[in-house]
From TrEMBL:
One of the record's GO molecular function terms: magnesium ion binding
Gene Ontology CC annotations of this record: cytoplasm
PANTHER family linked: PHOSPHOSERINE PHOSPHATASE
UniProt keyword annotations, A-Z: Amino-acid biosynthesis, Hydrolase, Magnesium, Metal-binding, Serine biosynthesis
Cofactor: Mg(2+)
Pathway named in the protein's UniProt entry: Amino-acid biosynthesis; L-serine biosynthesis; L-serine from 3-phospho-D-glycerate: step 3/3
UniProt protein name: phosphoserine phosphatase
Domain of life according to the entry: Bacteria
Length: 209
């Protein structure tokens, strides 16, 4: 039987991309997160507005993202989950293919195994809007797999923030990876907080014994 691992990208496998963009272009407003603006779509409209005001094009952003590295050990962690622990890995991210594409080869995952959103550009190369690939949340992807008759038994999900909660609820083992204090405080008690990839692997090893 297939065991699935649904894994978030930013904050779990790769660094926070907006923080980096904010620092690189020296625009502090761009580091605002869903902690300050709870509604993600509102937050994205705000970010797109700021980029437009500063005339920062999508290509400039993807250029700098190419310099970013995944979190150390991310690729090996995924290999371990797949080869030794026999998980089928699916990435579920509220980020965009346009931003994440450079990372997929670096973590050894095909973009076909990732569920993200898309960005639309205008004729000047500025980001115009987000084309959202789901309406409600990350759980929609897990429900899709359930409907296709995959058992979710022994499946896991790993995320670091509020937008990961709905997917962590739907699996047998939901992991919060290095969450902020605020995220941890608001998380259900049955989510497992993990500080490292090794801790996740150790937890899974213990299950088998
Ligand atoms: Mg995240």
């Amino acid at each position: 039987m297939k065991k699935m691992a649904f894994i978030d990208m930013e904050g779990v496998l790769v660094p926070e991309i907006w923080k980096y963009i904010s620092k690189y272009f020296n625009i502090p407003e761009l580091s605002v997160t869903t902690r300050e603006v709870a509604n993600y779509q509102e937050l994205m409209n705000y970010r797109i507005d700021i980029l437009e005001k500063n005339n920062i094009k999508l290509e400039q952003i993807t250029d700098i993202i190419h310099n970013l590295k995944p979190i150390e050990g991310a690729k090996e962690f995924l290999e371990d989950l797949h080869l030794n622990k026999k998980f089928e890995i699916k990435i579920i991210s509220d980020c965009f293919y346009e931003f994440l594409n450079p990372f997929f080869p670096k973590i050894g995952i095909s973009s076909q195994n990732a569920y993200c959103h898309n960005l639309e550009m205008n004729e000047n190369g500025l980001i115009e809007k987000v084309k959202y690939s789901r309406k409600k949340g990350k759980h929609e992807i897990i429900v899709k797999y359930q409907k296709e008759n995959n058992s979710m038994k022994d499946s896991i999900a790993i995320g670091d923030a509020f937008n990961d909660f709905t997917m962590l609820h739907l699996v047998d083992h939901g992991f919060l990876f290095q969450p902020s204090e605020e995220v941890k405080r608001n998380a259900p008690i049955y989510f497992h907080t993990m500080q490292s990839y090794q801790e996740v692997i150790h937890y899974l090893d213990e299950l088998r014994t």
